[in-house]
Amino acid sequence: MREKITEALKTALKSGDKQRASTLRMMNAAIQDRDIANRGTGKGPAGDEEVLQILTKMVKQRQESAKAFEDGNRPELAATENAEIAIINGFLPSQMDEADARAAIGQAIRDTGAAGVRDMGKVMAELKAKYTGQMDFGKASGWVKELLQ
To answer: Average pLDDT, stretch 30-39?
Structure first.
C-alpha cells in the first residue's frame, strides 16, 4: 500500500496534478502519524490493514465535511472534499453491496457461534478482521444487530 501511494504521488508531482498530489501527501502524513504513534507503544510501522483503516477513516471524515459544507451552502468546498474522497477511494478495495455484506455477516455469525445481541462485539471483530476497507461498519452494525435478535 505504501509503495502504491508513494508511486502515485511521484506520478502526480510529475504531471502537475496539484489536487491529487496534495491528497496523496495528506495520506502519507496520516500513515506516518500512525507509525509515530506505534513507535510510542512499541509496535512496528503500520501494516496494510492499518493503512486501510486510516484511509477508511479519512474517507468518512471527508464525507462528513462534504455534507457539512453542502448544508452550509458552500458547494465549492464540498466539491474539494468529494474530489479527495475519489482519490482516496482509488486505494481502497471495492465496497461490498448490501447483499454481499449481509452474506458475510451471516457467515461471521456462524463462525463465531453468536447466539444473541450480547455476541455482537465478537461478530463485529470478526468482520473488521476480514473486511476492513470493504464494508461500511456503521451500516453493518445495524444489520448484525438485526440478524442477532
So the answer is: 91
